[in-house]
Amino acid sequence: MSLNPRLVKESFSVIEPVADKAAAYFYGRLFAENPHLRGMFPPAMDLQRDRLFGALTRIVWSLDSPDGLASYLGQLGRDHRKYGVVAAHYTAVGNALLATARRFAAEVWTAEVEAAWVAAYTVAADLMSKAAEADSEFSPAWWLAEVVDHELRAEDIAVLTLRPNQHLPYTAGQHITVQTPRWPRVWRSYSVANAPREDGVIRLHVRALTGGWVSTSLVRHTRVGDTLMLGPAVGGMVPPGDNVRDVLCVAGGTGLAPLKAIVEDIITSGRRINVHLLYGARTSGELYDLSDLVRMEAAHPWLRVIPVVSDQPFFEGLRGMLPEVMSRFPSWADHEVYLCGPTDMVNETVRRLQEAGVPLSRIHRDTAAEL
Ligand SMILES: NC(=O)C1=CN([C@@H]2O[C@H](COP(=O)(O)OP(=O)(O)OC[C@H]3O[C@@H](n4cnc5c(N)ncnc54)[C@H](O)[C@@H]3O)[C@@H](O)[C@H]2O)C=CC1
What we know:
Layout: H1 5-15, H2 19-33, H3 46-62, H4 66-80, H5 87-104, H6 111-136, E1 143-154, E2 157-164, E3 175-179, E4 188-191, E5 202-207, H7 213-220, E6 227-230, E7 247-252, H8 256-269, E8 275-281, H9 290-299, E9 303-309, E10 318-319, H10 322-327, E11 336-340, H11 343-355, E12 363-365
Parallel strand pairs: 7-8, 7-11, 8-9, 9-10, 11-12
Antiparallel strand pairs: 1-2, 1-6, 2-5, 3-4, 3-6
Helix pairs in contact: 1-6, 2-3, 2-5, 4-6, 5-6
The chain binds 1,4-dihydronicotinamide adenine dinucleotide.
């Protein structure tokens, strides 16, 4: 069975404009044919549908690059262990997916297209289930973690410190998923905000979002001593390693979390590259981690922290939206750049960096929330 990425991409592009309907149909069909699977999913399926399409889009567009595909599907397979996914579930999902694709790409569907989808799904399911199986030999499907500190740093932003009940491996820049006892089966992604430490403690920066079940629960209803469930670490944004270039980090709001972990990783690595951290928030009160960053800056002369405020006219420091403020500096063309924050901020920053001559290979951004 050989892969034919072109046929899958072409037929998938017919489905993309009706993604919402297709995702609703997919889950309707999956649960109608396999009612026992419904209990594995959260009561409200809206975010789940977006995630499905996010993941499918990424898989379809990675079909041409085997390494990227294997790495992403390996993470996806390991992460799905926490839902209780076993090999038999892949057949049920494959059937529902094929039925969905056949229906929503009917205008271009042929026996060849069907064969291409079957081949692609077989490869994907195989990569996921093999990675999950290998992982199960040495790693739990999920972790319990005790909340050992909870600081409300702004009206709706908290910094939580968690101690997992056993070692949870990760690298700086990765994210984990969190489930609270209040919302069973609802998992949300958060970047780990510290580099790995000897004591295994993990910090999260959380903003309570309107209508955000987990974020509101973490910020407003979680206390020291509570227990949370954590999924495995995933994500491809990794620290600069042996690279000797100077680093620029652009952090919007709680997007600071993974970038702070990366800066901490540079500190613990002992390397002395220059690091500029542009840290932006709407108001000075929302620069919730500034005092800690200023302490880090004082201890490490090669680190420069630059606070930026966008929505407070009389703020005495740098004012403006992050992408525009970043462009006021002479040049970042020789830097390795790390970005995290609101999607529009990240996209606009990437656009400006490319315009200024920074190649995409040197721009690192996280794509959380896809798993
Ligand atoms: N691993 C990841 O991918 C993570 C992503 N995030 C994301 O970061 C975001 C943080 O949100 P908030 O704290 O509410 O930030 P925010 O909305 O308060 O924005 C912070 C700053 O980003 C810039 N900005 C915001 N919108 C912009 C736009 N449309 N164009 C240009 N610049 C803009 C401004 O300088 C603003 O002061 C969330 O969307 C969250 O999902 C957060 C943590 C980790």
